[in-house]
Amino acid sequence: MTTPFPVFPDISISTDRLVLRPFEDADGPALIEMMNDEQVVAWTAVPHPYTARDAEDWVRHLAPRERTEGRGIVLAVTEFLTQRLVGIVHLQNTNWRTLATEVGYVVAPWARGEGYATEAVLAAAQWLFRDQRFERLELRTAADNTASQQVAQKIGCISEGVLRNAWIARTQTEDGGWADIRTDLIVWSLLPEDLDGVADQLADAGYASFTDWN
Fold first, then answer.
1. φ, ψ for residue 99 (rounded to 5)?
2. Which residue of 9, 33, 145, 147 is surrounded by the most CB atoms within 10 Å?
3. How far apart are CA 89 and CA 15, in angstroms?
4. Nearest-5° angle of CA 160, CA 166, CA 172?
């Protein structure tokens, strides 16, 4: 049976250190912990507090539908050796006519500083360009989210401009709550030719290289 619209294949992507795969029920507790982290709350639109019901809905319904309804694909990023949940890579807002999509990512607080986001997004980009023959990957980062901007720069993205006042981030208040604040978005793009030499440069800097997908 064929779908009336294009969809990404149900795949997993492997690097030396990571496996990017569909979410499983067992990921729920780690997902809840990650999504309640202060940095994730501040820079994403996830519900807060993030509950077990939110995690179940994400794993069983929302994430799978991104692929089956043709919008993109959601991949749980896990450590190859420990199988711990490192984060999420989410291809979204996919345009099948122009072969372009947007990437978003989240990293668990315990896994930050290890280059996991760079490794995971680069692996997804290589699969997208080489296997799926896409022509453009877009990334949007909040103006003050320097960690996310560093990932974009490391994988070779080009900054294209600023969308003024285009995003609502969250800031923590004195009483421990959260308040919405408007912020600019920096738009980055990655094209297939931008990847030339990036993997070698990252390998020289100590990052693991992309290996396989299936």
1. 55, 55
2. 145
3. 14
4. 120
DSSP label at 207? P
Cα 169 from chain centroid? 17
Task: Give the C-alpha separation, 74 to 10, whole Å.
Answer: 10
Predicted TM-score (pTM) of the model is: 0.90
Q: Report the Cα–Cα distance between both ends of the chain, in Å, rounded.
A: 21
User: What is the pLDDT, as a whole number, of residue 197?
Assistant: 72
Sequence-separated (6 or more) residues with CB below 8 Å from residue 191: 135, 136, 137
Task: Tell the residue number behind the tokens 């453009």, with chain if given.
Answer: 136
Cα 105–chain centre separation? 2
Rounded Cα distance between 152 and 150, Å, is 5
Query: Per residue in 66-84, pLDDT tens?
Result: 999 999 999 999 999 999 9
Distances (CA, A) of 47 to 55, 140, 182: 10, 20, 17
Interval 9-21: pLDDT, tens: 999 999 999 999 9
